[in-house]
Amino acid sequence: MTSPNAKYGRLARGVHRDLAEKGWAPVRYWLIWWTALGVAMVLFYVVLTPIWLGLRAAAWVAELRSRLR
Q: What DSSP state is assigned to residue 26?
């Protein structure tokens, strides 16, 4: 008798139910997801965006100075 997960090979070793049957994600995965998303948003919007805007402003000032010469 073959397992319903035989087509997945070694990835499904030890899984005794059909992988096509999806269940609820554990709460710990939701916590990890929302924590990672929060850290990524803070990193992008609070840290990287001001740096990028500062670099753009410096380039703009440098271009204006070079045009005035």
A: P
